[in-house]
Every structure is written in structure tokens, then in C-alpha cells.
Design brief:
single chain; 251 residues; alpha/beta; 8-stranded parallel β-barrel; 10 helices; 15% strand; globular
Length: 251
């Protein structure tokens, strides 16, 4: 199981420093957030420019690291983001990243279906899977399962963003796993409080949700290939990384 951290909120930290941090703390990868808007990453001379992306992927592999997912703020229920997601799928192919994530924050089933139908051919061409986050309308994971069953496409899967089904809808981890099962390809683990807010102090490292038990359940479901991304906070200090590392070291 690949344990990685997210760059969300860490744009001020240079790429090489992030890579060194991942190596030092024995993470398996670095999940990139909203990278298409980061000129230092995708602009000329950046590690993910079209002329350097393959070399970056090769260097990461040599250092025992991967880019497990390109996470985006794209909302396919409201925004015309087909161009952005298509370009990210090309980038994902270039850096050997298997997943690009999208969300659906508005209850517009026809628009969601149309957006996915337009994106799936590009995903198939690039060998990339589009992951729908369990937030917004899909915090209801039974609804997400129904959509995934209906499309029945290898290029669609679920990104289990634990906070939203659990905190927003009061859905237990067992219910989420029962609903989504093998559709879960990637997981976001975040500390959060009972009031529904994110806990950036890193106090629990997922313990309120008993994340370790959840990951054991995923393993029993033969999800040993699931990548697990951690949103490590937005303060950039990395101070609670050791707590995460200790909790998830068995995986």
C-alpha cells in the first residue's frame, strides 16, 4: 500500500524539498494538488513541463517514489473543466500517474453524466483512471456506487475522501466500504473534529475515524494495491508528519 502526502497548501515549498521530505520520512509518493496552475511545476524548466515530465518520473522511480494521483479542484457538475482534466490526463500519462481526481459539488446528474461521457475516451486513450471524490453529492456513497455501476467503466473509480461521508453525512466506514468496495482506488485521510471542521493540529492522525482499522478492512477486501494519500495540512510545517508515519508504518 502506497502511503503518500498531498501538496495541497504546500505551494511555497520547492519540489526538490518535497521530494527529499518524502524520502526522509519514508513516504511512497507525493500527491500533487492543482498542479496545472503552478507555473513553477508545469512551466518551462519545471519538473512537470512536457519536455521534462518523463525524466522526473524516472528520477522519482529511482528514488522509490511515485505520483499516485493528480488531485484537482475541478467540479464536473458546474464547471466546464473538460480541457483542464484532459490536459491533466496527458500529464498523468507522461509521469506514469494512474489517477486524476474530480469532484461534483452540485446536484446536476445530467451535467455530471455528460462530463464523464466526454472525458472517458481521453482517459482510455491515456490509460488513466478518473476518480470521483466522495464529497458534495457523492458524499452519499450509495449514489456514487449507482453511478459507477451504471457506467461500468475501468476508467472510473472512487477517491474515498474520508472526511465528507463520515463527518458530513454521518456514514460509517463500514457503510462506505460496503457501498464502494473495489471501486476505491485512492483514499484521503485527514484529521477532523466533531464539528465537521478540519483539525490542522495533527492531534489524532485519523484516530477519531480509526483509520488503521479502516485500512485493515481495505486490505481484507483485497485492496492491497490501493494508494493512500494523506492531506498533511496547510501550515507547511510538517510537524505532525512523524505521527502519521508512526500510525501508518504497518501499511
Amino acid at each position: 500500500m502506497n502511503i503518500s502526502f498531498s501538496t495541497r497548501g504546500w505551494a511555497h515549498i520547492a519540489w526538490e524539498e518535497q521530494v527529499q521530505m518524502a524520502e526522509t520520512m519514508r513516504f511512497g509518493g507525493i500527491e500533487l494538488y492543482n498542479v496545472q496552475d503552478d507555473a513553477a511545476m508545469v512551466g518551462r524548466g519545471g519538473p512537470l513541463h512536457k519536455y521534462t515530465a518523463a525524466a522526473t518520473a524516472r528520477e522519482l522511480r529511482q528514488r522509490g517514489l511515485t505520483i499516485p494521483c493528480l488531485d484537482t479542484p475541478c467540479d464536473i457538475s458546474a464547471d466546464d473543466c473538460a480541457g483542464t482534466v484532459t490536459a491533466l490526463m496527458q500529464l498523468a500519462h507522461d509521469v506514469q500517474c494512474p489517477y486524476v481526481s474530480v469532484g461534483a459539488l452540485h446536484d446536476d446528474a445530467a451535467r455530471i453524466d455528460a462530463a464523464l461521457a466526454a472525458l472517458i475516451p481521453a482517459a482510455q486513450a491515456q490509460g488513466v483512471t478518473i476518480l470521483l471524490r466522495t464529497q458534495g453529492v457523492f458524499a452519499d456513497t450509495a449514489r456514487l456506487r449507482a453511478l459507477l455501476d451504471r457506467f461500468a467503466c475501468d476508467q472510473l473509480g472512487a477517491l474515498w475522501q474520508m472526511h465528507h461521508p463520515y463527518r458530513v453525512r454521518g456514514e460509517s466506514a463500514d457503510t462506505t466500504i460496503r457501498n464502494l468496495g473495489a471501486y476505491v482506488r485512492h483514499v484521503h485521510l485527514q484529521d477532523s473534529d466533531d464539528d465537521g471542521g478540519y483539525d490542522r493540529r495533527g492531534n489524532a492522525a485519523g484516530q477519531e475515524h480509526d483509520a488503521g482499522a479502516v485500512l485493515h478492512r481495505l486490505r481484507r477486501l483485497h485492496q492491497s494495491g490501493v494508494d493512500t494519500g494523506m492531506d498533511a495540512g496547510s501550515d507547511g510545517s510538517g510537524g505532525h508528519f512523524p505521527a502519521f508515519c508512526e500510525l501508518y508504518e504497518p501499511f
